[in-house]
Design a protein that fits this description.
- By secondary structure, this protein is of the alpha+beta class.
- The protein has helices at 21-36, 61-80, 138-147, 150-170, 206-210, 214-232, 299-316, 326-337, 343-359, 405-414; strands spanning 49-50, 104-111, 115-122, 126-133, 179-185, 194-199, 202-203, 240-241, 249-252, 255-258, 264-265, 278-280, 285-287, 373-381, 398-401, 420-427, 433-438, 444-455.
- The strands form five sheets. A six-stranded mixed sheet has the order 1-5-6-4-3-2, sandwiched between helices.
Length: 464
């Protein structure tokens, strides 16, 4: 489902379009519940739980079996991390049920098969995302059609949210959305008994990413590879993201994070022969090795890796990459697309590209070009709109990442409009400076930190 997103939805006090009425109904229930919270008063447990379950009609046997399977899954996750219970510990500085009485500005962010996501503001904590069971979602609806037991179906869906909370409590990586806290309250309506309080992110928009500079797209892919490396070697064992699509990710302060973990699995597929270890994708299939221990060798890891290849690498890695790095990037695409690389080899290949890029060793040797430029130290040009290049760090002009002034001169020489450039003090995430390229000289402004480079052939140099 779509995760905790930064795009603000309709306010509870001012309902939006009719299509959101179902979502807002659930939001209103949550708002009413929040108004009734007295805070961390008598009856609230230190572990973020409250109350006792209400008596209800017993679910049918088949639904009870599904509930038991979900509960066993949670128990296995808890015990695999050295814990024996499902208590939701607040931990140091974690939010709990009592904190929900202080939230303001509730708005709908989105919904999916299982969960409803709201945004909220919390004094002292800033914006957060609140996840609860989506009673109008297809998971609950299909279950009710099958079993005719709404309460049991909402409880079944709540186990998916509990699983996500359990995983986020036990895993720690910059590529995972932060869990700020949780509330489990048996006294509430079933669909809002479990509330997860998460870091709020903004949607991952692939169309927008394709328009960003290559360096930023490489950062996205590198951070994804580091996350998959962690998941392959996590404290809980190798973890596969079964629902691996861009919509499961968000951006937080320019960093990629996975926000939906309810469909993650630590189970390794059992096998008797290699043919039992088939990985099927829409356009390709792979047969992995069956180990002597009766497990498919690296299946979880390679499923994650191929999904990263088909959803991220193929779109974000090759376009507008430095020409000298394209053969290395092509090797990464081929090796991950054929699953010849595992995650260890993939991370090593990405880190090699990063070293070459940061060091400037990828630059092709050429004759010095700066001698074709007049250098004015201590001056810069007035900021104003100029010619545009793609992909630029600024929509007002041509602002590109460079290794040094020599590379900037090569770029300026390759662009007919360029007559001058300034290597600015701005730095990208790799530490490289940004250079601003100009088609004409404007008024010069004294700046002790700036150096202006002007083509000797530029018509406007006569003004100097």
């Amino acid at each position: 489902m779509r995760a905790a997103r930064g795009k603000e939805g309709a306010r509870l006090a001012r309902p939006g379009a009719a299509a959101l009425l179902g979502l807002l109904a659930a939001s209103a229930l949550l708002a009413l519940a929040l108004q009734s919270f007295p805070g961390a008063g008598p009856g609230w447990g230190a572990n973020g739980t409250r109350g006792c379950p209400r008596p209800a009609r017993r679910p049918p046997r088949a639904l009870l079996d599904e509930l038991s399977r979900r509960q066993r899954d949670l128990l296995r996750l808890a015990t695999s991390a050295g814990r024996t219970g499902l208590g939701l510990s607040r931990g140091g500085g974690r939010l709990g049920c009592g904190d929900l009485s202080r939230v303001t500005g509730l708005g709908v962010v989105g919904s999916g098969f299982t969960k409803l996501v709201l945004r909220a503001a919390l004094p002292g904590a800033g914006p957060i995302a609140l996840k609860s069971v989506h009673r109008a979602g297809s998971d609950v609806s299909r279950c009710v059609q099958r079993y005719g037991h709404p309460a049991g179906c909402r409880r079944l869906a709540s186990y998916k949210l509990l699983k996500e909370v359990t995983l986020l409590q036990r895993l720690e990586h910059p590529g995972l959305v932060k869990l700020h806290g949780q509330c489990y309250d048996n006294s509430l309506d079933p669909e809002i008994r479990v509330i997860a309080m998460l870091e709020l992110g903004s949607p991952l928009e692939m169309i927008q990413l394709l328009q960003t500079p290559w360096e930023e797209r490489f950062k996205i892919c590198l951070s994804l590879v580091k996350l998959l490396f962690y998941l392959a070697h996590s404290p809980l064992g190798s973890i596969v993201l079964l629902d691996f699509e861009p919509r499961q990710f968000v951006m937080v302060d320019g960093n990629l994070k996975v926000t939906d973990m309810d469909d993650a699995s630590t189970e390794e597929l059992s096998c008797k022969e290699d043919n039992d270890c088939t990985l099927d994708f829409p356009a390709k299939s792979f047969i992995l090795k069956c180990t002597a221990a009766g497990k498919c060798d690296g299946l979880n890891e390679k499923k994650n890796l191929f999904n990263a290849y088909r959803y991220f690498f193929t779109y974000l890695l090759p376009h507008t990459a430095p020409s000298a790095l394209r053969p290395l990037l092509g090797d990464i695409l081929n090796a991950t697309g054929d699953l010849r690389y595992g995650i260890n080899e993939t991370l090593g290949a990405f880190e090699k590209v990063l070293r070459l890029y940061k060091s400037g060793l990828y630059l092709q040797k050429r004759l010095p070009l700066l001698k074709e430029y007049i250098t004015l130290k201590g001056f810069r040009t007035m900021e104003m709109q100029d010619y545009k290049c793609w992909p630029s760090y600024s929509h007002l002009g041509c602002l590109l990442s460079v290794h040094n002034a020599e590379e900037a001169a090569a770029i300026c020489n390759s662009q007919p409009q360029c007559q001058s450039f300034i290597v600015t003090q701005q730095r990208t995430w790799t530490g490289r400076p940004l250079a601003s390229f100009r088609s004409s000289l404007t008024d010069l402004i004294p700046d002790v930190n700036a150096v202006l480079y002007i083509k000797r052939s530029a018509p406007s140099r006569e003004r100097l």
